[in-house]
Amino acid sequence: MLKIENLHAEIDGKQILNGLTLEVGAGEVHAIMGPNGAGKSTLAYVLGGRPGYEVTEGSVTFNGEDMLELEPHERAAAGLFLGFQYPVEIPGVSNVQFLREALNSQRKARGEEPLSGGEFLKLAKEKAGLLKLDMEMLKRNVNVGFSGGEKKRAEMVQMGILDPKLAILDETDSGLDIDALRTVGEGINAIMRQPDKAVLLITHYQRLLDYVQPDKVHILAKGQIVKTGGPELALELEREGYEAVA
Predict the structure, then answer these.
(1) Main-chain dihedrals φ then ψ at residue 146, nearest 5 degrees
(2) CA torsion through residues 11, 32, 74, 1, sign
(3) d(CA 4, CA 59)
(4) What is the pLDDT of residue 244?
(5) Which end of the chain is more exposed for a tag (fewer CB within 10 A), N or C?
(6) Residues sharing a CB contact under 8 Å with residue 164, sequence separation 6 or more, in sequence order
(7) CATH class assigned to 2-245
(8) How far apart are CA 101 and CA 197, in angstroms?
C-alpha cells in the first residue's frame, strides 16, 4: 500500500531524511520509534505534503500512485490521513461544520454524493461513541479549550469519519493519561484494523503498542531505518534505550 524508497528530505536546507526505505502492506500496522531529532515527524510531514519540506531524492507510492506528485488535499482524497502530535485550534469553526465540509469535499473529489446533515450527524455520533467523546464536544470550536486527551480523541473521531485507507499518526499518545491512552488505542483498532487499511504509528514509547499491537516495529535514527523487528523490539527499546538497541 505504502512504498518508500531511498527517501531524502530537507527543511530550510538542512538534510533530515537520509535514504529512508519502508514498505507497509494493506492490513498492517507498523510502528516507528526513535530518539528526538531522528526524523520521525519530518517523515510524517513529507508524506502529508506539508509546505517547506523538500524531497531531494527517492520516491513514495501510495496504492501504486506517485504520492509526491499530489497536493495535500489530493493525498487526503486518495485516502491518506495525518494525525498531528499537536492538533491545532480553529476558533470560530465548530467540529461538526469542519468535519462535514472535510468529508463532503473528499467525497466530491472521489465522485461520490455528499452526505446530508442528518446522515452526517448519524455517522459522527457513531464514531464519537467509539472514542467515548460526548457529541456536545463536536459542537464546540475545533480543539478550542480542549485538554490534550480531548484533542487526541477528537482527532481520532475525525479519522473515523473520514475513513482513510492509510493513517499516519504522529505521537498520538502524547499528552494522554492511562484511560485516554486505552480509549485511543481501542479506537485505532476499531477504525483501522481492516484488511484494506494500514497504519504508520510514530511514537516515542511502547505504552500505546500495548493496545495497538504492531506487525512490525522500526527504529529510525539519523534519517534512516536502522533496525526492524516485531513487537518485542519495542519492549527491548523500553528496557535498553536507543543506543543499546540501534
Answers:
(1) -80, 145
(2) positive
(3) 6
(4) 67
(5) C
(6) 76, 79, 80, 81, 197
(7) alpha beta
(8) 23
H/E/C letters for each residue in 120-153?
Answer: HHHHHHHHHHHCCCCHHHHCCEECCCCCHHHHHH
Query: How does DSSP assign 95-124, residue by residue?
Result: HHHHHHHHHHHHHHHTTPPPPPHHHHHHHH
Q: Identify which of 133, 156, 170, 137 has the alpha carbon closest to the alpha carbon of residue 38.
A: 170
Question: CA torsion 153→105→88→200, rounded to 10°?
Answer: 60
Cell (9 digits) for 69: 506528485
* H helical segments located in 145-241: 148-162, 178-192, 231-240
Whole-angstrom Cα distance, residue 153 to residue 181?
9
Q: Facing residues of 14 across strands?
A: 11
Model confidence pLDDT, tens digit, residues 73-130: 999 999 999 998 778 889 999 999 999 999 999 999 989 999 999 999 999 999 998 8
